[in-house]
Structure formats: structure tokens, C-alpha cells
TrEMBL record, chain A:
GO biological process, one term: respiratory electron transport chain
Record's keyword terms, sorted: Cell membrane, Electron transport, Heme, Iron, Membrane, Metal-binding, Transmembrane, Transmembrane helix, Transport
Subcellular location: Cell membrane
Keyword Secreted set for record: no
NCBIfam families: CytB-hydogenase
Chain's gene name: hupC
Protein name in the entry: Probable Ni/Fe-hydrogenase B-type cytochrome subunit
Native source organism of the sequence: Actibacterium lipolyticum
Domain Cytochrome b561 bacterial/Ni-hydrogenase: 30-238
Family statement drawn from the similarity comment of this UniProt entry: Belongs to the HupC/HyaC/HydC family.
Transmembrane segment boundaries: 37-56, 76-100, 149-170, 182-198, 204-221
One Pfam family it belongs to: Ni_hydr_CYTB
Membrane topology according to the record: Multi-pass membrane protein
Classification via InterPro entries: Cyt_b561_bac/Ni-Hgenase (IPR011577), Di-haem_cyt_TM (IPR016174), Hydrogenase_cytochrome (IPR051542), Ni-dep_Hydgase_cyt-B (IPR000516)
Coiled-coil segments on the chain, per record: none
Automatic annotation (TrEMBL), chain B:
Protein's recorded name: Uptake hydrogenase small subunit
Location of the Cytochrome-c3 hydrogenase C-terminal domain: 227-308
InterPro entries: Cytochrome-c3_hydrogenase_C, NADH_UbQ_OxRdtase-like_20kDa, NiFe-Hase_small_C_sf, NiFe_Hase_small_N_sf, NiFe_hydrogenase_ssu, TAT_signal, TAT_signal_bac_arc
Originating species: Actibacterium lipolyticum
EC number: 1.12.99.6
Record GO terms (molecular function): 3 iron, 4 sulfur cluster binding; 4 iron, 4 sulfur cluster binding; electron transfer activity; ferredoxin hydrogenase activity; hydrogenase (acceptor) activity; metal ion binding
Gene designation per UniProt: hoxK
Domain of life where this protein originates: Bacteria
Pfam families referenced in this protein's UniProt entry, alphabetically: NiFe_hyd_SSU_C, Oxidored_q6
Listed cofactors: [4Fe-4S] cluster; [3Fe-4S] cluster
Family (UniProt): Belongs to the [NiFe]/[NiFeSe] hydrogenase small subunit family.
Amino acids binding [4Fe-4S] cluster 2: 232, 235, 260, 266
Length: 248, 362
């Protein structure tokens, strides 16, 4: 898996030190193409879903563009929501497939090694790092254990929850006997029988995902700057590069 | 059962001609959405089947179900009560009162064991051994158990019997409980609504008599023919919803133009009922048509879903009145502020570290 960055460096801006460093440092191929493509499609879908979903709860001001027959403003908002939701669903299923057939990093998001004491120690180490109690962060090839925990709760569980509740709401429009109704219609009785409650918890789910977005983007950028490995570019190129060659 | 007259015999006895009887069968078929081939079947059923005895009991309720029922136009409530069923006990509608009425109940149960339909309007309160609702000197819950024991099927009339309605709204001091949670060993048809539409009530009864079976029910036990679609799916204001044209305030121009009431909290999109097709009072109108949003009265726990006038309704679970947006925005705000503070401290820390390492180098 590990391969060495080609060296030596050449060019006017590379001094002796640069060349020496670059020849020592390594990168690991972590995120395969399906994982990266899924990440960005999912991100785009979530943005569309949050904006249109908010509007479905609180519609924009009434517009008078044409006669009601020819004006489909709210219809398009809902269409965008449903289309993005189904794209997210297909993407999530594809991502789950890749967790089985992709490399072992692709599996990390779907399970938590909660019975391993070592893993919990690492989680608390990361918590201390974020509380400024550790001076030196550790190096991680995949997600660090705290990130793994967050990914599992916010994305694996969060997106699955939104897909299930979302398709249950979608089934109301498709009608009884439709595929969505047969697969997810049971959700409405499960939340008490009134789909108003389902709307409310689906709406709360949106905020759960928004909170994740705030933390995720902040931490990705912060780690990219302050940790010992690349973060942001890894989700573009797939390669995790390391800033030092300390063994620990 | 031999001593019970058939529907046809009763109708003929009342002076109805054969011709009128056939017309009535055609109308009934049309009301149930059946083709002309079903007319002879209905006629045959009415000629040969004895009338079904019905016991109609009243628990905690407001009688709005009965009020609705007696206004049925297709079929007329009088036809249902006098010709189609044998309404042997209904303490609100019957002439008898007191001991005589209670005797009629006992007699019906005894005589038609296993063959009568029990119609329940209202629900039993279970706290204090059911003492919050007394019928004939006994708790209603006892009467319900007694009458349900030998019933062929149970019809839960209205939101009370189906889901609990207002008396079961939080905190439900009397522990008013819907029928299906008290009677668990009988087939139960829920006909929710506060009240249910008159024609839906008589339609359900007519179906059961004609085909001698329960109508097809959905997941929640409601007859599919009336409760399989939402008010929203058949709302005549739906084009304004899709266009994004909403009533913004009760007295604005859009309200006058009859735009969609979604922003005024209309619960049409979450309410399963036939109001937007069957309508009320012989098809004259329904709430949305008269300018007010649907309040979702045929949905489970509709009193506990926040205001009738919000779409994003309050969550009482959080103890204070706050909707999903307020809770979410609050949480996102806290997280956002935390992130900003964390970023600031991170920047300071790394600046401090740089100065220190510089000093060390020096």
C-alpha cells in the first residue's frame, strides 16, 4: 500500500533540505475513487436537500409569475428535494456496497470497534487533543477513532435515518401500494400514526446533519493545518500524505 | 335469526315499490364506487339476508359522530337505521330510556350472540376503575367489554374510539383509551374523524351488509376506500400549492383568491380522509373550501401535534414551546460558536508554539 513519492526534487525553489525531506516522506492511497465520488455527490445532495427541505417546511413568499397552472415554483422545490433524496439513497447503497468490496478504509464508517479497549483509549486521546491537553497529535492513515465515531453517528446513522423517514414521507405522495409505501409505509405507525410527527423528526434530522457539516468542515480544515497528515486533499486525490516521518 | 325480516321485506312493508328498491340498489352501488353489475348482487343480498343487528354504545364523546351520521344523504340515515340495519340499542337515538333501554341491550346480546355489530362512539376512561364515564350506573368500560364479548365485529366511530381524541390529549387525566387498546380479540374497523363524514359512516355499514365482510383496511385499520388518500391529494387548491401561491395572512388578497392554506398550518398533507372528494352536508363544502386549513381531525393524536396554524409545529417533548427549527438553529448556533472559539484557541496555541520553538532555537 505504501509507496514512496518520486524523488529527487528539482527546480529553483527546492533547497537541500526540501529535497531531503521530500525523498523521505510517504503517502498512502486511502480513499478509492468510488468513496471520493460518493463523498462529493453526497455533499452536493445534502446541500440541495437542506435548502429545499427548509423551504418545504417554510415556503418562500408567494409568487405571481403566471396562472397557477403554468407556475410550478413549489413543485420544482419539492422535485429537487425528492430527486436529491433519491440520489443520496442510491449513493448510500453504493457506498455500503463499496464497504464490502472496497479496501478496508471503506469499511471504517460502517462499524465501531466498541469492544476494543485500545480503540476507546485512542478516542479519548483525540478528545484530549481537541481540548488542547495533548501537545502532539498522532498520525492516522484512515479516520482517527473520534472521527470514526462521529462519521458513524452523523453520517451512517444520520443519513440512514433521513433516508428511511424521507422515503416514508415520499410514500405518502406516491400513495398506498407504491414501492415506497410497501417498503417504508410502516414508519408512520411506528412514530405514533400521525405523519405530522414524522415531518417534525425528519426536520430535526436536517439540523443533525447541519451540525455535522459545521463540525466536519471546521475539523477537516483545522486538521489539514495542525495535524501531521493531509485531510482535505485526501478526499480529492485519495492519497494521505504525511508531514513528518516520525515513527509514532 | 329466522324472525328477523330481510331488508327487502322491511322496505316493502314501508310502502316502497320494487322499482324504487332497484333504484336504491343502483344508488348504493354508485355510492360505493361499484359497477352496474353489482346492482343485482346488492338487490339479491337485500332480498335474502336478514338485517344485521347493531348495538351502538356511547362512551366519552360529544355525540358529533351521531350528529354527522343522521345527516347522511347517500344513503339517507333513515334508510340505514330503518331498513338496512336493525339498530337495537343506541341510547341516544332510541325511544326507550333507563331500565327499558338497558334491557334492550341485554336482549340483543342474548338473542344475536356472535352475529351483531358493535358500534362504539367515544372511548372508555380507564383511570379510577373507569369511574369517569358511567352508563346505566356502571362504568362504560364494563359495558364495552360486555357488549364486545359476543360481537361479530366492532366499528370504532370517530377520533375518540379510534385514537382517543381530545379527552386523551396530553396529559389525559382520565386515561381515556381508544377501543382497540381495550378490545383486543375482535376485528375492529376504525372510522376516524371528528366527526367522520356522514356518507363515510353509512358507506362503511352498507358495504358490510352488502358483502357480509369487513371492508379492506389499511395499516392503521381504516377502510381503504375512504382513508387511502390524503386531503392534499385531492384538494382543489393543490395547483396553488404546486405553484407556490399561499395565503400569507387570514385577511390578505391571496385568501380572497382562494390560494393554498399550507402556510396557515393546513394539515391536509398529513391527513387521510375523504373530505376533499365526498365533502360535507351532501357535498356542499369542506373546511378548506370554506377558507380554513384542515386541522387533521382524523389523524392519531391530532390534539398533541402543536398548533393548528403552524406547519413546523411545536415540540412539547422539549418542555418548552419550540419547533424543530428553533431547536435545530439553537443547537447549530451553540456548535457554531464552539467551533469559532475552538478555532481561535487553536490559532493562539499554534502561534504560541511557534514563538516558543523560535526562542528555543535561539
Amino acid at each position: 500500500m505504501t509507496d514512496t513519492t518520486p524523488s529527487p526534487l528539482s527546480g529553483a525553489h527546492a533547497d537541500e533540505h526540501d529535497i531531503a525531506t521530500a525523498s523521505r516522506q510517504t503517502s498512502v492511497y486511502v480513499y478509492e475513487a468510488p468513496v471520493r465520488i460518493w463523498h462529493w455527490i453526497n455533499a452536493a445532495a445534502i446541500i440541495v436537500l437542506c435548502i429545499t427541505g427548509y423551504f418545504i417546511g417554510s415556503p418562500p413568499p408567494s409568487m405571481q409569475i403566471a396562472e397557477a397552472n403554468y407556475q410550478f415554483v413549489f413543485g420544482y422545490i419539492r422535485f429537487a428535494h425528492f430527486a436529491a433524496g433519491l440520489i443520496m439513497t442510491v449513493g448510500f447503497l453504493g457506498r455500503a456496497y463499496w464497504a464490502i468490496f472496497g479496501n478496508h478504509h471503506a469499511r471504517q464508517m460502517f462499524y465501531l470497534p466498541i469492544f476494543k479497549v485500545e480503540w476507546w483509549k485512542e478516542v479519548f486521546f483525540e478528545v484530549r487533543w481537541y481540548l488542547f491537553l495533548e501537545k502532539q497529535p498522532k498520525k492516522y492513515v484512515g479516520h482517527n477513532p473520534l472521527a470514526q465515531l462521529a462519521m458513524f453517528c452523523f453520517i451512517t446513522l444520520g443519513v440512514a435515518f433521513m433516508i428511511v423517514t424521507g422515503l416514508a414521507l415520499y410514500s405518502e405522495g406516491l400513495g398506498q401500494g407504491s414501492w415506497a409505501d410497501l417498503m417504508f409505509g410502516w414508519v408512520i405507525p411506528a412514530v405514533g400514526g400521525n405523519s405530522m410527527m414524522l415531518h417534525t423528526i425528519h426536520h430535526l434530522g436536517m439540523w443533525w446533519i447541519i451540525i455535522f457539516m459545521i463540525i466536519h468542515i471546521y475539523v477537516a480544515i483545522r486538521e489539514d493545518i495542525m495535524s501531521r497528515q493531509s485531510i482535505v486533499s485526501t478526499m480529492i486525490s485519495g492519497y494521505r500524505t504525511f508531514k513528518d516521518d516520525d515513527p509514532d | 335469526m329466522e324472525n328477523i325480516e330481510t331488508f327487502y321485506e322491511v322496505m316493502r312493508r314501508q310502502g316502497i315499490t320494487r322499482r324504487s328498491f332497484m333504484k336504491y340498489c343502483s344508488l348504493t352501488a354508485a355510492a360505493l364506487g361499484l359497477g352496474p353489475s353489482f346492482v343485482p348482487k346488492i338487490a339479491h343480498a337485500m332480498e335474502t339476508k336478514p338485517r344485521t343487528p347493531v348495538i351502538w354504545v356511547h362512551g366519552l364523546e360529544c355525540t358529533c359522530c351521531s350528529e354527522s351520521f343522521i345527516r347522511s344523504a347517500h344513503p339517507l340515515a333513515k334508510d340505514v337505521v330503518l331498513s338496512m340495519i336493525s339498530l337495537d340499542y343506541d341510547d341516544t337515538l332510541m325511544a326507550a330510556a333507563g331500565h327499558q333501554a338497558e334491557a334492550a341491550l341485554e336482549e340483543t346480546i342474548e338473542k344475536y350472540k356472535g352475529n351483531y355489530i358493535l358500534a362504539v362512539e367515544g372511548n372508555p376512561p380507564l383511570n379510577e376503575d373507569g369511574m369517569y364515564c358511567i352508563v346505566g350506573g356502571k362504568p362504560f368500560v364494563d359495558q364495552l367489554h360486555h357488549a364486545a364479548k359476543h360481537a361479530k365485529a366492532v366499528i370504532s366511530w370517530g377520533a375518540c374510539a379510534s385514537y382517543g381524541c381530545v379527552q386523551a390529549a396530553k396529559p389525559n387525566p382520565t386515561r381515556a383509551t381508544p377501543v382497540h387498546k381495550v378490545i383486543t380479540d375482535k376485528p375492529i374497523i376504525k372510522v376516524p374523524g371528528c366527526p367522520p363524514i356522514a356518507e363515510v359512516m353509512t358507506g362503511v355499514i352498507t358495504y358490510m351488509l352488502t358483502f357480509d365482510k369487513m371492508p379492506e383496511l389499511d395499516r392503521q385499520g381504516r377502510p381503504q376506500m375512504f382513508y387511502s388518500q390524503r386531503i392534499h391529494d385531492k384538494c382543489y387548491r393543490r395547483p396553488h400549492f404546486d405553484a407556490g401561491q399561499f395565503v400569507e395572512e387570514w385577511d390578505d388578497e391571496n385568501a380572497k383568491k382562494g390560494y393554498c392554506l399550507y402556510k396557515m398550518g393546513c394539515k391536509g398533507p398529513t391527513t387521510y380522509n375523504a373530505c376533499s372528494t365526498v365533502r360535507w352536508n351532501e357535498g356542499v363544502s369542506f373546511p378548506i373550501q370554506s377558507g380554513h386549513g384542515c386541522i387533521g381531525c382524523s389523524e392519531d393524536g391530532f390534539w398533541d401535534q402543536g398548533s393548528f396554524y403552524d406547519r413546523v409545529t411545536d415540540l412539547t417533548q422539549f418542555g418548552v414551546e419550540a419547533n424543530a427549527d428553533k431547536v435545530g438553529l439553537g443547537a447549530a448556533g451553540v456548535v457554531g460558536a464552539g467551533v469559532a472559539a475552538h478555532a481561535a484557541i487553536s490559532a493562539l496555541k499554534s502561534a504560541q508554539k511557534k514563538t516558543q520553538s523560535k526562542k528555543e532555537e535561539a
